[in-house]
Amino acid sequence: MSAVVASACPPDSAAARLLDPGYALTLRPMRYPQFYDMYRAAIRNTWTVEEVDFASDVTDLRQKMSPAERHLIERLVAFFATGDSIVSNNLVLNLYKHLNAPEARMYLSRQLYEEALHVQFYLTLLDTYLPDPTARQAAFAAVDNIPSIAHKAAFCGRWIDSIRQIDALDTADKQRQFLLNQICFAACIEGLFFFAAFAYVYFLRARGLLHGLAGGTNWVFRDESCHMAFAFAAIEVVRSEQPELFDAELETQVRAMLHDAIECEAQFAADVLAGGVAGLSLAQMREYLEYVADQRLRQLGYAPQYGAANPFAFMDLQDVQELTNFFERRVSAYQVGVAGELSFDAAF
């Protein structure tokens, strides 16, 4: 009998743990109903790229934005071009393989769809913003020809590769390796790299620019917030089931990882702001990164490290009116009504 079939029968529910090796297939009795609830909520949050209107963005890019602001956008969309593909690779290669609960894998399947949707959104974005084929090709190859983006991709790649050869989480050391991968993608990649990118978008929106990009980013932001919520919930389940994995060494590694992520994103910020963007400084971006890192540490149950404040007033609750519109719109925004609450304090 194959290893997969042999492990298809669910283990004793009283003893089963999320990181136990195998492929549990039975949804009843459901061990983690919170993951199933997250899956159902994600289904209700369906949107399409065709609903995003970039018409005014093209005018902004051509007539209203400075060369420095256009450089910011070119770098930003170049990062977007591959960022969600990197996350998708980790979902397929690592997370789905090792989170041993069918309801958790249901959510990951939905997340993979959403990551593909984001890739489509950014593909459309680049096709709209960069009509010149040569410029567009360079943007899609950013991981090879733009050092600040290559640096971020290499950071992500290290953590994808860190557990790729692990077939089963059958030792505590392998389980800690897996936790570090999940923490990296939740706290550093989705939770820091992408949220820094969102800050640039909302900075420009606060100046009345690129409302199409901002509108689509609102939906991507909603998805990414849910992705992080799932990842942190999974981490919390492991903490409750195997508290011994969360030792002092793991905390030290997490803090070092976040430090590396901040430095990586600060290098990208120096590139993005190289032309000098009025109203946005490198010092502010570093402070914001440290502020977000402290939020991630709190979500992991650790004490904050940097004591930074949010330097961007435009990120406070993002936009109360926009949030209200977000939950009220059905046809023009989300195809299906959205239920639930979203805390911007927790996300930013």
Key words describing this protein structure:
348 residues; mainly alpha; 14 helices; globular; disordered N terminus; disordered C terminus
Termini separation (Å)? Answer: 48 Å
Any idea what the radius of gyration is? 20 Å
**Could you tell me the mean pLDDT?**
87
Number of helices: 14
Shape: globular
Question: Could you name the CATH homologous superfamily?
Answer: Ribonucleotide Reductase, subunit A
Structure description:
This protein has one domain: Ribonucleotide Reductase, subunit A. With 348 residues, it is an all-alpha fold. It has helices at 3-6, 33-44, 55-64, 67-98, 102-129, 133-140, 142-145, 147-161, 172-206, 211-241, 248-272, 282-299, 320-328, 344-347. The protein contains 14 helices and no strands.
Brief sketch in words of this structure:
By secondary structure, the chain is an all-alpha fold.
Spell out the blueprint of helices and strands.
Blueprint: H1 3-6, H2 33-44, H3 55-64, H4 67-98, H5 102-129, H6 133-140, H7 142-145, H8 147-161, H9 172-206, H10 211-241, H11 248-272, H12 282-299, H13 320-328, H14 344-347
Helix pairs in contact: 2-5, 2-10, 4-5, 4-8, 4-9, 5-10, 8-9, 8-11, 9-10, 9-11, 9-12, 11-12
